[in-house]
What we know:
9 helices, single chain, four-stranded parallel β-sheet, alpha/beta
Amino acid sequence: MDQLPIFVNLKGRNVILVGEGEMADAKRRLIERAGGICVDAADRAARIAFVAIAEEDEARIAADALKARGLLVNVVDRPEICDFTTPAIVDRTPVLIAVGTGGASAGMAKAIRQRIETLLPETLGPLAEAISGARSKIRARWSEGAERRRALDQGFAAGGMLDPFGTHDEATVDNWIIQAENPKGDRLIEIALLSADPDDLTLRTARLLGEADNVFHDPGVPAAILNRARADAVRHASAPPAAPPEGLSLFLRLPLAQG
């Protein structure tokens, strides 16, 4: 991973915008859409800046001056001197999906965004808001954090009552809280990988990696596969113990020829 994707809250914050014309206008719309306030380079309250200048030397001089003041700077169409890049955005507020290529190809990011747009229903945003509004009810139903996370994982799974790709109404979340089955207990699932290539992961394996609390694996399983697991899942380069730890554990095995 060459960049760390983050979402920055710009509401009510000053953001420096240097430049004029179409490039600057596009960045101004983006900043203001996120609730930011566009200011000039003289502003001392800003912590983030955009440089939208067509002439390369002038753009570099402006960016260097801002960086010297400790600001994070985006320079339009010059990813090699950017501190951060702006992704293509799928907006289902409060759900945002950002597609970035590290500045390699804005056109590719846009094409991927357009494809994702066709998959996500307009009810996704209201579903997220309903879940946020029902936090106290969810905590009352599943008091333990790990149990609550597993219940949500089951709800969000393909075909589940909270499936993000499904169509929902105002009663969806309340119905789920009442009707959902208790999450499955501690369990271990052994998975024989097809190969060491992450492109060969089955949909089931990819889903389980996103849910697992512990991932046990053969030493030769590559990082490209292990990185598909939750960031906070514990990795173990060993076979699992006789009694699996709390929650869902996976044991990833390489094909015999590679193990």
